[in-house]
Amino acid sequence: MSAGPLPGWVDRVVQFDEDSFGIPTMKFLIPLERHPAERRVAATPETIKRLLERGHSAVVESGAGKAASFPDSAMREAGAEIVQEISWSGTEALLRVGPLTSDDVDKLPEGCLVIGLLDPYMHLEAVARLAERRVTSFALELLPRITRAQTMDALSSQASIGGYKAVVLAATKLGRYFPLLMTAAGTVPPAKVVIIGAGVAGLQALATAKRLGAVVEVSDIRPAVKEQVESLGGRYIEAPQTEAAEDQGGYAKEMDEDFLARQRARLAKHIAAADVVITTAQVPGRPAPRIVSREMIEGMKPGSVVIDLAAPSGGNCELTRSGEDVVHNDVLILGPANLPATMAHDASTLYARNVLALIEHIAPEGRLTIDPADDVQSGALLTHDGEVINPAVKKALLERGD
Ligand code: NAD
Question: Which domain holds residue 32?
Fold first, then answer.
């Protein structure tokens, strides 16, 4: 799949140094992520070693890996230079976890390379600035979900952590056991868990809740999901009848209010019987579908727990507040804004490997090589040579009037 006509494509956009073997190399800058909830880092000692083996160099801002338990000493031992203050203006290649603000982009030199989870739909202003500054940027969330891109698939590595942690969080908040227990004091029934959305996070939540012994029901709107749910031991809740619910990229389509009302009616009795509800339903680039209403929460048992993983994109539950804990009618509703960051060590380890795999893909010989015919690149390439390349993000910018 190509991203369409791509003016000004060149195979080399950044003038990198040549090392003693004549291979152009990149100097990767790994800054400390400054968002208060962000604990992950985009490179680890493992990936830094690999970059150095390929002739690149790495500069790490002091403390960048600390919250993920990768101290400066480990980064230095791997071969990185540690600096107290990074020089944004001298950046050749920047490795990020979270998105850049427009102010961040304005500090970058023209023509540099940026790789990260740039959250483009929520940061359209920064995307426009990246293009204006002729930055070559790759947004990992735009990678096509194809087998060839699996090693780079940061959405999957991080969503899987989110799904696992949601269950662990629910188990710590619930005043009940997850497993069936036969005790001298009598039998304790297993917890009932309902999961809405069976993408990567939902399937990992299903597997984790099953391992803890819960009875798990799962709802989704993509027909392919039923078999996956059943193979993991979940009970599938059939979705209301609809036209094709899946787009060509394998993502769910945005459903209209009539469908969502029928879906809520179908789910109400399952949610009323649940001890835990974990919602993960998302539609890329769109607000999360509203699937759990106030009335449905009011129908739940006291002490039940809802974990809404779609909170950052507006929430699947009407009462969710992103980053906050809400108690309504004795039901606890958590809207964690960044669960992967709460498991920063493993999240960073996997994310850094995803980033490294993308670098190896776009710079196989050390030199950045942009190939418009390559579907991995044409999907994830956000801006290049003064243009916004990803067609969906470009459309969102045009609709916004840029
Ligand atoms: P996502 O985060 O975009 O959405 C999560 C889930 O919510 C999806 O399963 C979606 O169908 C569901 N959903 C959306 N609207 C809903 C609604 N109204 N009610 C119930 N559920 C709803 O999904 P994801 O985890 O990023 O996965 C997206 C796609 O990518 C899936 O098809 C997945 O199988 C595929 N994928 C492929 C690969 C690969 O390498 N081939 C890897 C990972 C994911």
Answer: 8-142+344-400
